[in-house]
């Protein structure tokens, strides 16, 4: 549960299947609106839950982080958009993710620990850098 749309009220977030399609559902508490974000492809996806929603861009409304095979997907519920980062081989897990502020700019960064190194994702500027 986190405020995903920036209205100051906590929303409910969960993995779901809708019409045979797998994805993430968000139930907006204030408006009772239910929004579904379909994640195409793999039958196996993971929702980062250590921090159910994190501010990755400095704009009100927490972002949601989803792993699907070699992709890390960031959902921006406040405007209904999703952005995908291709991290290469599918040899990292949702448990490999850490969130921290590394650049003192608005929004936090995503660190993904992989066998070949670390990828830093700055969703605010839509970049992924391998280190």
Describe the overall structure.
By secondary structure, the chain is mainly β. The chain has a domain at 43-130. It is 0% helix and 45% strand. It contains no helices and 11 strands. The strands form 3 sheets. A 4-stranded antiparallel β-sheet has the order 4-5-6-7, with no helix packed on it. Strands 8-9-10-11 form a 4-stranded antiparallel β-sheet, with no helix packed on it. A hairpin with a 6-residue loop joins strand 2 and strand 3. It is globular, with a radius of gyration of 14 Å. The model has no long low-confidence stretch (mean pLDDT 87).
Write a compact overview of the structure shown.
The protein is an all-beta fold and 131 residues long. The protein has no helices and eleven strands.
Main beta sheet strand tally, sense and closure: 4 strands, antiparallel
Let me know the number of strands: 11
What is the helical fraction, as a range of percent?
Answer: under 10%
**Could you give the order of strands across the largest sheet?**
4-5-6-7
Judged by helices, strands and strand pairing, the structural class is mainly beta
With helices defined by DSSP (H or I, 4 residues minimum), what is the helix count?
0
């Amino acid at each position: 549960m986190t405020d995903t749309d920036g209205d100051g009220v906590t929303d409910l977030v969960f993995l779901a299947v809708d019409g045979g399609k797998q994805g993430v559902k968000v139930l907006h508490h204030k408006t009772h609106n239910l929004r579904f974000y379909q994640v195409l492809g793999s039958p196996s996806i993971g929702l980062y839950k250590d921090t159910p929603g994190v501010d990755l861009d400095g704009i009100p409304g927490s972002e949601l982080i989803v792993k699907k095979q070699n992709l890390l997907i960031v959902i921006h519920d406040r405007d209904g958009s999703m952005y995908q980062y291709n991290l290469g081989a599918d040899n990292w897990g949702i448990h490999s993710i850490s969130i921290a502020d590394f650049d003192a700019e608005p929004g936090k960064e995503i660190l993904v620990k992989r066998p070949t190194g670390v990828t830093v994702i700055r969703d605010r500027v839509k970049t992924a850098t391998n280190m």
